[in-house]
Each structure stands twice: as structure tokens, then as C-alpha cells.
Design goal:
Chain lengths: ~190, ~270
């Protein structure tokens, strides 16, 4: 029997190798239709996985993620794995990050089953979308990102509908972990 | 050709525009596809609007999110909120109406059509369900007696009416802004999957604005225009009608359960 490992958290930042059509459309709409989007220079999109449990070493985590389409397609996408808070996310110093995930729907049961089947280790897998935004110089980037994040009406917000989704905001120093399980009064453990 | 013109607004990725036009024509209205590249001002010439089903903009960012920001929608909002013209959003069209805030109205976004909640599974679901007409001010269902049960098809992955305010949908129901709710085949409240196919709060299958002129509904009435389209898995009164029509060879000629909503629109336009 292998010795018990400590609970750890890893993030996998997955992006298309080609231009991402969702990001291309979103940046066009944000610039045209939203005040906060006028100064938007670029918008990149990542699928962000957060893995929590008894994780092996980084190289093994990268290999496991690479092997299963539950996480990404290595022919079309690439992944950057973070396992320490000090390691860099694929975000430049002048960029803002908006993380969006489904309320009560961020867990990935099929990916968790695959991981358990292959490694014998139980794991919590969560998935969200990380939008990485860069604004023109002179724009209050944190404020503009916050405005673009939360949908409020036809002229306000885009990335997160707060009636079904949660969001988190960050600069380039992205927290790890970032997609903490929701805690509600009287609620049990996350699904 | 009817003088009552209805624009079927087509964003790229919409795929139910032709059958929606046929539904309007069958109800006695002049349906016309209005493509997203046309000048938005042209929308003002129409008496009513339908946003049909499909996957506008490939559901990029979120279902309905990008279409809700389209310049066409700004004009449509003016016509619907300012001049009281009716608009029906079906499935993806419902998602667009919710993302603009036209439903339930009030100038801000108050709802979402969230991913389906289904026990032991996720993703897209296509099946026939039953909805019950509730007392409401909705112009599309006003002619129908409350309690009427209609079998209609659903086909969506994000159709769960949701709000971060836990009592918002109950309030909408109490205010008569929930004209269609999922029920069992014999008309009882749908408590579980698959009668409630997506876990929608209050069993909401449709929500309308306070004036009743904007309706967001997840089932597809345009796919139930005649009895020949009614699924063989549907039981009860509509199955008996289908059986009789089949024996008489009139399946395509006799009205199906979805047609009544388009007829309701025609009656409203004729009276207003």
C-alpha cells in the first residue's frame, strides 16, 4: 500500500492552439455593445480545471490530463498545469482574469470516475472558464473587467449570468485554489 | 396573405426559422424571416416577432448571450417594451429574451436559463413533455382555459429557469407571469424528472413579461402544428385525437397542440 498523500490542488489551464471562436466573438461584441468593452485590447479564453485530492507529482498529473479526453484534446488544445501558488498562470502582468463557472454545476463526475478508474485515487474535479482580458493603457482594468463580468442588462455585462453562474476576479497573480466548493448554510458537501 | 406581419428573427446558428414561418402562416399570419444582416430599423414595420430555436452564435459565451447584444435586439426592445408589440422566444429564442431582460422585464436581467438538472446525467435532452396552461396575462395563451394540458416537444441543454433570488420564480408564478408549467400527462404538477425535464424552478416551462406581450418558452410549439407531428409516446386526449385522425387520413390537416399559441398571437393582433 502506498503511503497516504496530502490533499493538494492543481489547476489545468486549457486553451485551443488555434484562435478561439468564443473569444473572437466575445471581444467583438464587448467592444461594440458595452461601454466597459471599448478599451478591450484582447480577450483570451481558457477552460480551467481545478483538481483537489491526493495528487501525484506534477509530471504524472500532466500525463494523466493528457491521456483523457475528459480534460482536453491534445491535438487541438494545450494545457498548463499549476500545483503551487507561486507558479505562474498563463496570464501576463497587465492582464485581468474573470473566472466563470456554473452554480452547483462545476463538478465533473465523468472526469472524477475516469481518474478513480485509472489511478485508484478519489479526486474532485471542477471546471470553469477563465477569460483573460487586456485593456488599453489608461483604462481602470480591474473595474472594466468587473463591469464586463456580470450581466445586468443589454448594455451591461457579458461573461457571467449571476442567476445561474458564479464568478471570480483576479489580476495576473491567480489564486490557487480558486474554485472553492460553495459553502451554504445547512448545505452538505459539494456534489 | 395576411396583413399582420410577423418577423422571425434569424441570428446565425438559428435552425427553426422555416417551421416557425410555416406555423405563423398556418395560424393566418404573414411570417417572414428577418436575417441579422438587415438594417434593424426594418423591424419596426412588423406587428410582432418570434425568436426561433437553434444555437445562435453556436451558444458562444452562453446560450443566447451574444444575440442578446445584437443591434437588432435594441430595436426589438424598443418595439416590445415601448410600443407593446408581442414577441415569442422559443428555446434559444427564450434564452435570448432572458439574457436581454425582456423576460420577465423591468430593464435588468433577472433570470437565467441554466444547464439542465437531470438525475444521473447531463447535457442535452429531447423528448415530449406535457405543459399546463396557467391563469396569466400572456397574449399567446390568453384564449386557452387555465388547466388545459398540451403535449409539446422539448430539445435543449440549458432550459432550467433559475434566479439567484430563491423566491423570484414563485413570485412570478403568483403574479401570473408563468403561463406554462410542466405537468404529468394527467395534468398534475411535475415534481420529478422526466415530467419536469430540466429541473426548472416552479416547474416553469415559460415565463412572460408583466404586460404579457413577451413570452420565453422552452418547448417547441412549431414542432407540434398538426396531429401527424404528435409523438406516439404521447398518451391521453391528444393520442386519441391522433388515432382518430390517422384512421380518417387527416393527420396533417388537423391542428396539433402547438398551433394554439400562434393562433393566440393572431387573435391578439386582430383585437389590438
Amino acid at each position: 500500500m502506498s503511503p497516504a498523500r496530502a490533499q493538494r490542488v492543481a489547476q489545468a489551464w486549457v486553451a485551443l492552439k488555434s484562435d478561439d471562436p468564443e473569444a473572437v466573438s466575445a471581444v467583438g461584441v464587448a467592444r461594440r455593445a458595452l461601454e466597459a468593452g471599448r478599451g478591450l485590447l484582447s480577450l483570451r479564453r481558457f477552460r480551467l480545471f481545478e483538481l483537489r485530492g491526493e495528487l501525484p507529482e506534477r509530471a504524472q498529473v500532466e500525463d494523466l490530463l493528457h491521456r483523457s479526453t475528459q480534460f482536453y484534446n491534445p491535438h487541438k488544445e494545450h494545457a498548463v498545469v499549476r500545483m503551487e501558488a507561486g507558479s505562474a498562470a498563463p496570464v501576463e502582468p497587465d492582464e485581468q482574469v474573470v473566472l466563470v463557472f456554473e452554480r452547483d454545476g462545476e463538478r465533473k463526475p465523468a472526469a472524477e470516475r475516469w481518474w478513480l478508474h485509472v489511478t485508484g485515487l478519489a479526486l474532485e474535479v471542477r471546471e470553469g472558464v477563465a477569460w483573460v482580458l487586456r485593456f488599453e493603457a489608461g483604462v481602470d482594468a480591474a473595474r472594466a473587467a468587473a463591469d464586463l463580468a456580470v450581466l445586468r442588462g443589454p448594455a451591461h455585462g457579458l461573461l457571467c449570468n449571476p442567476h445561474a453562474q458564479e464568478h471570480r476576479l483576479s489580476g495576473s497573480a491567480v489564486p490557487l485554489p480558486w474554485m472553492a466548493p460553495a459553502r451554504r448554510p445547512g448545505a452538505g458537501s459539494a456534489r | 396573405m395576411s396583413a399582420l406581419r410577423v418577423a422571425v428573427v434569424q441570428f446565425p446558428g438559428v435552425n427553426c426559422e422555416d417551421e416557425t414561418v410555416r406555423a405563423l402562416q398556418r395560424a393566418g399570419l404573414a411570417g417572414e424571416i428577418f436575417g441579422w444582416t438587415r438594417p434593424a430599423a426594418g423591424l419596426r414595420e412588423f406587428h410582432a416577432y418570434v425568436l426561433p430555436g437553434g444555437f445562435s452564435w453556436q451558444d458562444r459565451v452562453r446560450a443566447g448571450a451574444l444575440s442578446a447584444k445584437d443591434p437588432l435586439m435594441l430595436t426589438l426592445i424598443e418595439e416590445v417594451e415601448g410600443r407593446g408589440k408581442p414577441v415569442l422566444g422559443i428555446c434559444n429564442g427564450a434564452q435570448v429574451l432572458v439574457e436581454t431582460g425582456l423576460v420577465p422585464g423591468g430593464g435588468t436581467v433577472e433570470l437565467a436559463l441554466a444547464r439542465n438538472h437531470m438525475p444521473g446525467r447531463g447535457g442535452y435532452l429531447a423528448r415530449w413533455v406535457h405543459v399546463r396552461v396557467e391563469a396569466s396575462c400572456c397574449v399567446f395563451t390568453r384564449a386557452l382555459a387555465p388547466g388545459t394540458v398540451l403535449p409539446l416537444p422539448v430539445a435543449h441543454g440549458e432550459g432550467r429557469f433559475a434566479s439567484r433570488d430563491p423566491v423570484r420564480l414563485a413570485r412570478l408564478r403568483g403574479a401570473g407571469q408563468m403561463p406554462l408549467r410542466y405537468v404529468t400527462a394527467d395534468g398534475r404538477d411535475a415534481c420529478d424528472f422526466p415530467d419536469n425535464p430540466n429541473g426548472s424552478a416552479e416547474g416553469a416551462a415559460a415565463v412572460c413579461s408583466a404586460k404579457g406581450n413577451a413570452l420565453a418558452m422552452m418547448p417547441h410549439p412549431e414542432r407540434a402544428l398538426d396531429l401527424g407531428q404528435v409523438s406516439r409516446c404521447v398518451a391521453g386526449e391528444w393520442a386519441e385525437r391522433r388515432q382518430r385522425a390517422g384512421e380518417a387520413g387527416t393527420l396533417a390537416a388537423e391542428a396539433g397542440p402547438g398551433l394554439v399559441l400562434f393562433e393566440g398571437l393572431r387573435r391578439h393582433l386582430e383585437e389590438s
